[in-house]
Each structure stands twice: as structure tokens, then as C-alpha cells.
């Protein structure tokens, strides 16, 4: 076993070593020495000596918390509509606990690497006609969220409720009734019936289609 080097008085990142701390015994008979440190923020912690010397630990944890806050606030757009659209897009594709995940991430729809960060997405949006009355739309419904496959479209609803061109929006996604029927794997007549009954979109997309005994679709 090598001689233990006294780290007292040395500084590692934001941590200043005060004295030797506890020692943990390994199953193989070796030991793991800890050192009592004071962080620049004033908090006292005990850190494994190896983590100090390797640079793996450089604060009591305050640095990571500060960095996380900066990542979330550097664009100053949290709570805006555009930021909400970006969050909804990520949830649809990356959060398998979301109800709509099966229609997006669950069937292979992904987000390009660039758009996993908000700033590049925001820059693309502002350069490509984003406005607060528009919503993101994938040109190819089976394609990914990426610059070449996305556009901003209006949410204007056609006067004729029976038209397949009527636009419906749910969780930031905009499609015609015919497109929603394809995405949800239910008949267009079922979608049209639910819309005419003024069902909310959450109910429209979450209610499975059933069949009557004679084979006709019902809602």
C-alpha cells in the first residue's frame, strides 16, 4: 500500500481540503480515504481523495446546479409559446410515458440532433416564418422533426365540418382529419363523427375505435 499523501490545505476546483475525514474499508482489505472540504459556497462535504485528485469532483454540487439553471434560462424564453412547442415535440418523440408517444417516438419518429437544443430550433423557427398563430407541421407524416421536413402552418378551420381538409391541432401537432385518421389508425368517418359531436381533441385521439356486430364502425 502506498503512502497516503496529505491533501490538507490544497484546493481542487471550488473545494478547499480542511482535514482527513473518514476511512472506508474495501472488501479486499484496502481502504478508501475521505477528506473534509469546504466549498466556496460555504458548504462542508466529505469527498473521496481519488475524486478530488482526478478532478471528478470540484464542488459540493453547487456548480452542477448553477450550470443546470443556466442551461434552462440562457435563452430567456421559458414559458413562451415557441418554447412550449419545442417541449411538446420532444415529449412526443422521447417520453414513452406520454399518451401520444406511440404515434411518434413509438413508431420511429425522431428529432434531429440539432433540435435537441432549443436555441437551434428557435433560430430555424424565426428564420422560417414562425408566428404565434402558426403551429409546426411535418411535411412527410412518416418523417422526422428536422428542418427539411417541417414548416409552419395556420390553424384555420375549413367552414365545412365534413371536409377532409379541416385542420385539427393536438399537443402542437397539426393535421387534417384524414391525416389524423391515418395516424390514429381509425376510419375517417369516425374522426368526422367525433368532430361533429364536438369532442375535445384529447378524447378524439385517446378513444379506441370499436365495431358493431355487423362490422360497421362506431365511436
What's a concise summary of this model?
The protein has 219 residues and is α+β, with helices and mostly antiparallel strands. 30% of the residues lie in helices and 22% in strands. Helix 5 (177-184) packs across helix 6 (188-196).
Structure description:
This protein has 7 helices and 10 strands. 30% of the residues lie in helices and 22% in strands. The strands form 4 sheets. It has a 4-stranded antiparallel β-sheet with strand order 1-2-3-4. The chain has a two-stranded antiparallel ribbon with strand order 5-6. The protein starts with 10 loop residues before the first strand and ends with a strand. The C terminus is likely disordered. It has 219 residues and is of the alpha+beta class. Helix 5 packs across helix 6. It folds into 2 domains: 62 residues, no CATH class; 138 residues, no CATH class. A hairpin with a 4-residue loop joins strand 3 and strand 4.
